[in-house]
Amino acid sequence: MSHWLVKSEPFVYSIDDLKKDETTGWEGVRNFLARNYMRDQMQPGDFVFFYHSSCEPPGLVGLARVDGPAVVDPTQFDKKSEYYDATSDKAAPRWRMARLRFVEAFKHLVPLEVLKADPALKGLALLQKGQRLSVQPVSDAHAKRLLALAKAKTTTGRTAARRPSSSRRGR
Fold first, then answer.
1. 3 state SS for the chain
2. Which of 49, 73, 121, 129 is most enclosed, with most CB atoms within 10 A?
3. How many other β-carbons are positioned within 10 Å of the β-carbon of residue 23?
4. Which domains does the chain have, with CATH numbers?
């Protein structure tokens, strides 16, 4: 079993949205490396850390599981979608997406500042300068530490930054 981290702006799609929906397709990813992770490496049952980005404060907010093999991302064929890809062929779709199932929302957000300050998380992809991928692998050791931080009684006393969701679902 592997571990992953996915990033989403909470005003686009939050952990609360996933909890309400129970499952979702991680559509709209238009980075080849992130697509390859979802298509080739994510396996049903893998744990996925859910991270809120582009908010104050950014941080880990919950857990999901991969819910089946990667499937075709329909937004690549939707001309009204901001993720439309005119070069993608229906006979050989370019973009795939993982299906995610809600597991839990953490009681407390684990802020980015706490993650950066933890020496046990050295090398975590999320903390690397210039890292912008919305889908990232997480090592077993880092996954154990992230879970320990999430289960701690508090990290800073702040709650997860959450805003009402919109109909825009891309990542």
1. CCEEEEEECCCCCCHHHHHHHCEEECCCCCCHHHHHHHHHHCCCCCEEEEEECCCCCCEEEEEEEECCCCEECHHHHCCCCCCCCCCCECCECCCEECEEEEEEEEEEEEEHHHHHHCHHHCCCHHHCCCCCCCEEEECHHHHHHHHHHHHCCCCCCCCCCCCCCCCCCCC
2. 73
3. 13
4. 3-151 (3.10.590.10)
Q: Report the residue count for the chain.
A: 171
> CA–CA separation, 66 vs 138, rounded Å?
14
Dig out the tokens for 148 from the structure: 């320990």
Burial class of 125 by CB neighbour count within 10 A (0 to 12, 13 to 18, 19+): middle
Neighbours of 17 (CB within 10 A): 18
Distance CA 95, CA 29 (A): 8
Integer CA distances (angstroms), 86 to 28, 33, 80, 151, 164, in order = 14, 20, 11, 44, 31
